[in-house]
Amino acid sequence: MNKPPGNRQTLKTTMPQGDKSSYTDKQKRQAAHIEAGYEPRGGSVKTAEARAWATVNKLSGGGKQSGSGRKNHKLK
Hints:
- The chain has helices spanning about 25-40, 45-60.
- By secondary structure, it is mainly alpha-helical.
- The chain has a domain at about 25-60.
- Helix 1 crosses helix 2 (about 45-60).
């Protein structure tokens, strides 16, 4: 991994990993429901949670998004 030069400061503009504050209530409910479906299959709770959020991101594009045409987004 390349490091930036020592005298430059890099700005971190992304959210910290694990921060779910930008998700809607519906997305949070979906993730909880999906996670509950994975848990009885014998995987760890952490794996179930990761798969649930990955599924929500795949379905919705992740987080709250604004802009025209938001509802017309179709996955292939």
